[in-house]
Design brief:
By secondary structure, this protein is mostly helical. The chain has 2 domains: 65 residues; 85 residues, NusB-like (N-utilizing Substance Protein B Homolog, Chain A, Orthogonal Bundle), CATH 1.10.940.10. 71% of the residues lie in helices and 0% in strands. Helix 1 crosses helix 5. It is globular. The N terminus is likely disordered.
């Protein structure tokens, strides 16, 4: 298995996690726009996406963990996003950008097993794929600032 420094293994697991992040974004959108609970969005996604189910139970668990954690901690994630997004309050951001940023900040704060560079790279990829024309650059800038602040708060290792 090939691994670059600061990255997840280049493998089926990596591809499964990428697909899980895409699924999690769809579920988070269902929560945000459809006002569904995390549990309802996860269940609905499983019913709707039968033909494109995630590749493994681990990927499904990863997506569910992202959704549940992001929804549970949204009230504490939004101020972190706002503090790093100059002149942008989360409620004024495009919905997809806001959801991608929340999910990424959740991973940065609560999933130390995922390298920060992977979190940021994957968030940028989601933003490019599902967001607006400038979403990738916007997400990159905000998450880079969040990462620096989290590293400064953690102090020297």
């Amino acid at each position: 298995m090939t691994t670059r420094p600061g990255s997840e293994p280049a493998s089926e697991e990596f591809r499964a996690r990428r697909r899980a992040r895409e699924a999690a974004l769809q579920m988070l959108y269902h929560c945000e726009v459809g006002r569904a609970s995390a549990d309802e969005a996860i269940a609905a996604h499983g019913e709707i996406e039968q033909a494109t189910r995630l590749e493994s139970p681990q990927a499904e668990q990863f997506a569910a963990r992202l959704v549940a954690g992001t929804v549970e901690h949204a009230d504490e994630l939004d101020p972190v996003v706002a503090a790093s997004a100059e002149h942008w309050r989360p409620e004024r951001m495009a919905v997809i950008d806001r959801l991608i940023l929340r999910m990424a900040v959740y991973q940065l704060r609560y999933m130390p097993d995922v390298p920060p560079t992977v979190v940021i790279d994957e968030a940028i990829e989601l933003a490019r794929r599902f967001g607006g024309e400038e979403s990738g650059r916007f997400v990159n800038g905000v998450l880079d600032a969040v990462k620096r602040k989290l590293e400064a708060a953690a102090g020297p290792q």
